[in-house]
Structure formats: C-alpha cells, structure tokens
Amino acid sequence: MAAEIDSHDAGTWGGDEPGGVFGDGYVPVHAQNKANLVEIAQRLEQAADGVNRAADQLEEQERANSERIGG
Questions:
Q1: Closest CA relative to residue 7, chosen from 25, 35, 30, 29
Q2: Quick check: helix, strand or coil at residue 10?
Q3: Radius of gyration of the chain from Cα atoms?
C-alpha cells in the first residue's frame, strides 16, 4: 500500500490550481507522517524486545527462587 501511495506526486490531485495547492501541501506532510510511523514502529519493536527480555529474566528469577525454597 505504501508503494502505491508513494507513486503519486503532487500532480496527482489535478493540474488545476486547487489540486496543485493541495498536492503541494499534502506531499511534505505525508512524507513526514510516513517517517514518523516508521520511527514509531521501530520504537515499538525495541519496546517489545525489552519486554521479552524482562519476561525471560523474571521467569529465570522465579525458577531460581523456586529451586532455592525447594519448589
């Protein structure tokens, strides 16, 4: 879907003045929003990795504690 959207330039909204004005304003905002979404996705992946590492550490700690008390 991103490739389809990216394949359109400011002229996509028509050759008249209103279409050109809209396209000229849309394209840079779209590019910034897309970059923001990519960054958000990367940060979410990093957060997920951190949560998984924390869960693994807590599971290991629980196992070790259980063994220490004879469980």
A1: 30
A2: helix
A3: 24
